[in-house]
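Reopening: Acyl-coenzyme A oxidase still failing for me.
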Amino acid sequence: MASMSVKHAIAAAKKLRSLQERFNPGGSDIYPALMGDEAITALIPSGNPLSVHILMFTRALREQGTDEQYEKFGRRADNNEIIGTFAQTELGHGTYLRGLEARADYDRGTEEFVLNTPKLSSYKWWPGGLGQTCNYCIFVAQLYIDNEAKGMAMFVVQIRDEETHMPLPGVHVGEIGKKMGLNGVNNGFLGLKDYRVPRLNMLMRHQQVLPDGRFVKSPVSQVSYFPMVFVRCMVARQNSNYLAQAATIATRYSVIRRQSPIEEGQPEPKILEHLTQQMKVIPEIVTAVVYRLAAANLQNMYNETAEAVYRKDFSRLPELHALACILKVATSYDSTYGIERLRQACGGHGYLTAGNLGNIFAMAAPACTYEGENSVLYLQVGKILMKNWSQVLAGRELMPSMAYISECSKMTSFPQWTGSWECLLKAIQYACVGSIRLAFQSYNARVQSAQSQTAAVNYSGLELTKAAELHGRSYVAGNFYQQIVNSPNKHQRSPQFQKVLENMLELHLIQIFFRHLGDILRFIRITEDEISALQRRLEEVLKELRPDAVAITDAFDFNDKILSSALGCYDGNVYERLFEAALKHPLNRKSVPDFFEAHLKPFMKENADNAKKSKL
Ligand SMILES: CCCCCCCCCCCCCCCCCC(=O)SCCNC(=O)CCNC(=O)[C@H](O)C(C)(C)COP(=O)(O)OP(=O)(O)OC[C@H]1O[C@@H](n2cnc3c(N)ncnc32)[C@H](O)[C@@H]1OP(=O)(O)O
Ligand SMILES: Cc1cc2nc3c(=O)[nH]c(=O)nc-3n(C[C@H](O)[C@H](O)[C@H](O)COP(=O)(O)OP(=O)(O)OC[C@H]3O[C@@H](n4cnc5c(N)ncnc54)[C@H](O)[C@@H]3O)c2cc1C
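Support: Ran it again with your exact input. Result attached.
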């Protein structure tokens, strides 16, 4: 599996390189963006062993290295002359980066760093492609000068000979083992013992160790976390795509499969005519659209911020960090659970490998963990919300994506309920702000009662994550509302298209409202009649969107090769394709399987003989 993945990944890398040269010669940005394209990931169903090379190794060299370091390592990496990975996580630590145990001690006598993974728990563990594909890596370690810790730093480390691919002396490298999916990625382990690299192998754009051992601190220490911010943005985009793929498969299947007449004596309808089936499938289509738009916005913000960071302007980093965290979490959670709901919506056939929903799930699910475990990122956002609430209390302005928090904080009560889109959006935002206020009160009370800030975060964790989740909902719904209702492009849309978009907005807002009804009712009074009216609107909008479901998923524009699904093929020949896939199974190659003579026949015979004996 690993060798097939490497072969496909190399073919894809070559193709993309040529596209890069054609469309953006000399530039660097289009390449990773193309690599993130759904076509690439879908065509390598066991995962792309070059993902981390492209998404993190090359980027870190470009963004964290000096110009000289880029010339030495980065250009070769961009040309794929060397293949690397990002080796940060250890067997004992992934989340708590300040607890990483790998160390780099500066030896000013030789102007080298001595790299070590002193314990089993400090072995690097998980980096994509590290097991077998890579010959280089970025090794993240605690920097020590004269045995004094200086914080995390990144080192370019050659781990295999460029000619023979043999691990170099002092390097212990291998594959970590079979996983639930992504088995072509060859995630690896790495131990280093007294492994020396020249001083200029430490990436020094933002912090430096001078030849005499003097340490020049980065102006903003979090800039060393920047490679992770990029991948979080990519996860938001990629996981929205996985959800869109699963939604396309389930929608196409739901208009082919027929079950159970709705009226006695009528023919069996397509299963998508059943209201509960509509509720399983159509909201996932809409969620995929909503997240794709949010991820595109995030990508733009990343591009602008990355340019600024390169110029050493770090002012927008906190806002980008907060948004990248919240969208990474929202898209990975909602795609993972959404894909599973869609698989169930395909009944028994959804469980067949030929439907490809299992593999799409296996590709989407680990994003809840990698690049920052989701609860941990929620807590990051929770902490940022606490800081921003302090700003609100001090009457200061907030970052643009949190401006609604200031607005809602000024409201003494929720306005008259109208049920309009504005009202639904405001209700979600208002509940979010109420949750932030309560979380702040708990957090602050703990700090006032002499708990440390970190302990207060831990014990207010449930309220902080709730506030963060609602902030994610508020941001995503607000972004969608703006794009449908206030977009400057609105007037270029046909009335029919605008109506479909408005139906999607209606469904999204009502769905989020019901999902968070408990949270909303804590802060807003709504009558039973008002909630029932929304229930009727939900049923109505599902009915209205039903005829458009296939067209919307067709507009995602996934071809059959990408979907790789007997259930989701464009021509709708589901049963023929399921049969074709079944006939290709190795067990169908022979009419009588080998195990019959070897095991089954003797087993049955032995039972028959025993039965005969017991009758005698
Ligand atoms: C070929 C292509 C195919 C294509 C596919 C397409 C793409 C799809 C995606 C792809 C698949 C890729 C494969 C998977 C790759 C996975 C790679 C990894 O997992 S790699 C491993 C990933 N590993 C992880 O993700 C590890 C997760 N852990 C962490 O990130 C950190 O330990 C921490 C954030 C949890 C704590 O940090 P710590 O410093 O201990 O503590 P504090 O909390 O006290 O924060 C202090 C201050 O820093 C601030 N701040 C924090 N972060 C950032 C930031 N990023 N920026 C800016 N600021 C940040 C924070 O707000 C605070 O500010 P202030 O209050 O002072 O103002
Ligand atoms: C498919 C895959 C690919 C990966 N690729 C790479 C790679 O290329 N390079 C790389 O360096 N790493 C990689 N990783 C590792 C990944 O980044 C880590 O697994 C991730 O950061 C989570 O860390 P952890 O595994 O230590 O989880 P842990 O932190 O041990 O999490 C376990 C549980 O503890 C909880 N927890 C931990 N800390 C806190 C806290 N402060 N507060 C509350 N709860 C907490 C979590 O919420 C979770 O429920 C990959 C992982 C996977 C699954």
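The pocket of flavin-adenine dinucleotide (ligand 2) is lined by residues 52, 85-89, 93-95, 126-128, 182, 187, 366, 369-373, 375-376, 379 (CB under 6 Å). If you still see a failure, please send the error message rather than a screenshot.
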